[in-house]
Specification:
The complex is a heterodimer of chains A (569) and B (197). With 569 residues, chain A is α/β, with parallel strands linked by helices. Helix content of chain A is 22%, strand content 19%. Chain A is built from ten helices and 22 strands. The longest helix of chain A has 20 residues, at 462-481. Chain B is mostly helical and 197 residues long. Classes of the chains: A alpha/beta (569), B mainly alpha (197). Strand 14 of chain A pairs antiparallel with strand 3 (183-187) of chain B, so a sheet runs across the interface.
């Protein structure tokens, strides 16, 4: 049973405070606790304990009156998240209440929140890729944004560190643009994916079709069970087979005896001490009682998620920082990025009707970036690049509504014939950091705790739209050359936020005049405040970011520990 | 499905009672104006009869249970009552009226009163004229979805109701709640029937 801090008066001082318990906060807690630091994790939502608080993990559709769908009341409560198509009866309790947590879309922006212990680490897609040297050099080379203060070699040991503990499955390929992780055995491609891989790699030298690299255990690892291929991850996994804070990092932190978790804790602000030039602690509103408490610590890690972290920093004003903690540069809140989403192509693979698969693989294929990786692949239409996710499957009865026919034969065929193979790929393109893509505090619109909300004002621009155009052209061309039939290219023209890869708004950089954080994720002018969630990102690559948040967090936490030992913090 | 397969499946389902039931339902579905044996939450009795008749026509009882055996019409009524918003409910009522109107103008009768050949003719025409659902990627339809119309949306809804029901999901389809492994290339004949989940 974890330590809880409910009686606020008892224990107000810790060695470290971690704000947020998701993907990166869990890692901060684990590293700090294991180094012997008494650590308080603040979480604005409720407690979710691994397995115990996964009430729907074994539900079948027929257990529910609406077979897993949600009605108008839930749709209203989650009126932002319903746009994703991901929310249903079995996972709705892991999504934040959008009505209680409003934000303003100055331009359309989908902000998906998960307010509970573990945050979005319970809901993520688990795709896990290292960034490459190409990514860390990108800003410096093409002049967009500011230069990253670190390079791949700085992060490489920390990728190794987190991978070995978290457990990542995949296949090593030696591609410079997609460095290999330390892999557990890869999941299997299905028949059609194997065939399309052969055709694609023959038709398009330099392109690769691989099984997705994912934070799922394909063998038992560190006391956690292997994936059972139920594909019910977003309900919480009773086997602990995918990486989440709840299953992996928080239990490890808790095992040290140094962890205290305080759920229902909304951070009002980080308190800056003018005398020491450091943050002295954090003001917290108890979301249940409305009472304000102040906790103290030597170091503070901000891991509330990209936009929430920036919201907290913007709210943390003092005479030294009138525009938000660490905002000397004026860049706090700016350079918001996300990956473009839902552009690609789909069609039918003809043949192999006698083949099927067994198990529900929570993973698909990946086609790593192949544009702008060297002189030969340089585009004159855009900078940066994109990768594809996708897969082949047979629709089963789900394809029945589009099939011609009804009656006896029709019904029976749906029981015995899983339908034609379908194949799709959908791109994720890199977004450049633009100063004008920003969030700001909206002091006119307060939430139910009296806190200023966020106004989000961001959009994709010419480079992202050019990338999306290329994604669709390439997707259609690849499917054609691979013999896929009935090809439909698509571009849903989704606004930012749909990628659920928000990054930036408190970027790392070499120069305090143009960035918020230094090379070890410390606020330039307030060194005992660390930001290691997506807010810190200086650029956004085209690969999924979570692994990089984990590695940056472990690296920064170990830097903090070493600085504390030296007496520098 | 040929007869041999039908018998095999019936054996798997463990009962000759299903065949008896099947004959019974064929007899029943020939009767016009069946009395409603359940109380709808949203639909009026006449509308409910239409939905039941559509379910029975599209998913009739064979060697495997029919849509009415799985109470798919009742499930659809629940969906109309609890999932549809007011606007959707209004549109549904208009669609039902429109569909009945088509039947009346063609055959002078409501759908529930049509014989099998007439029902087939009407539904084939609907089938041919209704746009299809766009493909989906991870829960999101790709591209811009044209309205699929009454027939196809009802067909979609009843397939959902039928295949997500307990008996079909656990006993008719291939139910494997904890597969344990993923095997990417398995002969269809070794799997036998479509996976339930």
């Amino acid at each position: 049973m974890p330590n809880f801090n409910i009686d606020a008066k008892k224990d107000m001082t810790y060695d470290a405070i971690v704000v947020g318990s998701g993907m990166s906060g869990g890692w901060a807690a684990k590293e700090l606790c294991e180094a012997g630091l008494k650590t308080l994790v603040l979480e604005r939502g409720r407690m979710v304990e691994h397995v115990k608080d996964y009430p729907t993990m074994n539900n079948e559709s027929w257990d529910q009156e609406l077979r897993g769908a949600i009605g108008p009341e839930d749709r209203k409560k989650h009126y932002k998240v319903v746009r994703t198509g991901f929310i249903g009866e079995n996972n709705k309790h892991f999504y934040a209440n959008d009505e209680e947590n409003p934000y303003t879309e100055v331009k359309p922006f989908l902000w998906v929140r998960a307010h509970q212990m573990g945050g979005r680490s319970l809901l993520w897609g688990k795709q896990t890729y290292r960034w490459s040297e190409l990514d860390f050099e990108a800003n410096a080379k093409d002049g967009h944004g500011v230069d990253w203060p670190i390079r791949y070699k700085d992060l490489e040991p920390w990728y190794t560190h987190v991978e070995k503990y978290a457990g990542i499955s995949g296949e090593a390929l030696g591609l410079p643009q997609l460095p290999d992780s330390h892999f557990l055995p890869p999941m299997e491609l299905n028949c059609v994916e194997k065939e399309v891989k052969q055709r694609l790699e023959k038709e398009f030298p330099g392109r690769h079709l691989i099984i997705g690299r994912v934070a799922h255990l394909t063998v038992a690892h560190n006391g956690r069970g292997k994936c059972q291929f139920r594909n019910r991850c977003d309900r919480g996994c009773p086997f602990g087979a995918y990486f989440s804070s709840n299953a992996v990092t928080l239990p490890a932190a808790n095992a040290t005896g140094n962890l205290t978790m305080r759920p229902f804790s909304i951070v009002d602000s980080i308190v800056y001490d003018e005398k020491t030039g450091r943050a002295s602690g954090v003001k917290v509103i108890d979301s249940e009682t409305g009472e304000m408490h102040e906790y103290h610590a030597k170091i503070i890690f901000c891991n509330a998620s990209t936009l929430s972290t920036t919201q907290i920093l913007l709210k943390s004003t003092s005479s030294r920082f009138p525009n938000g903690l660490g905002n000397d540069s004026g860049e706090l809140g700016h350079n918001l990025m996300d990956h473009t989403y839902r552009v690609g192509a789909m069609g039918n693979f003809e043949g192999m009707e006698d083949m099927y698969y067994k198990g529900r693989r929570p993973n698909g294929i990946y086609i790593p970036r192949y544009w702008n990786i060297d002189e030969k692949t340089k585009s004159d239409k855009f900078v940066r690049g994109f990768g594809f996710q996708g897969g082949a499957y047979r629709p089963g009865w789900g394809g029945g509504a589009n099939m011609d026919g009804f009656g006896e034969e029709f019904k029976d065929s749906l029981i015995t014939n899983p339908g034609p193979w379908e194949f799709f790929i959908t791109g994720f393109a890199e977004c450049l950091p633009y100063h004008e893509n920003k969030v700001s505090l909206d002091k006119q619109n307060l939430d139910k705790w009296g806190q200023p909300t966020l106004a989000i004002d961001a959009e994709y621009k010419a480079n992202e739209l050019a990338l999306n155009k290329q994604i669709q052209e390439d997707a259609v061309e690849m499917l054609e050359k691979c013999g896929i039939k009935n090809i439909v290219g698509f571009d849903n023209k989704h606004e930012m936020g749909y990628g659920i890869h928000e990054m930036g708004t408190a970027r790392m950089g070499r120069d305090p005049k143009t960035s918020v954080l230094n090379a070890t994720n410390q606020v330039h002018a307030c060194k005992n405040v660390f930001v290691t969630d997506g807010a810190c990102m200086t650029s956004n690559s085209c690969v999924n970011p979570s692994l990089t948040y984990m590695a940056l967090t472990a690296r920064a936490a170990n830097h903090a520990i070493s600085e504390l030992k030296k007496g520098n913090l | 499905m040929n007869r041999r397969e039908a018998i095999k499946n019936t054996a798997l389902l463990g009962g000759a009672s299903i065949l008896t039931g099947s004959l019974f339902s064929i007899l029943q579905s020939c009767k016009s104006e069946p009395r409603l044996s359940w109380k709808p939450s949203f639909l009026k009795a006449e509308q409910a009869q239409l939905i039941s008749a559509l379910v029975d026509t599209i998913l009739p009882k064979t060697a495997t249970p029919g849509g009415l055996d799985m109470k798919v019409d009742i499930f659809m009524d629940t969906v109309f009552a609890k999932l549809y918003d007011a606007e959707g409910q209004k549109a549904l009522v208009a669609d039902i009226d429109g569909f009945n109107e088509k039947c009346r103008s063609k055959f002078g009768k409501a759908f529930t009163e049509l014989d099998k050949a007439q029902r087939t003719e009407i539904l084939k025409a609907e089938e041919a004229s209704s746009p299809k659902y766009n493909g989906k990627v991870w829960g999101t339809a790709v591209g811009e979805q044209k309205p699929v119309g009454f027939y196809r949306s009802m067909k979609s809804l009843m397939l959902w109701g039928y295949f997500s029901s307990e008996e079909i999901g656990m006993k008719v389809l291939n139910y494997d709640p904890v597969p344990g492994d993923y095997l990417g290339c398995v002969p269809m004949k070794d799997v036998g029937r479509v996976w339930s989940l």
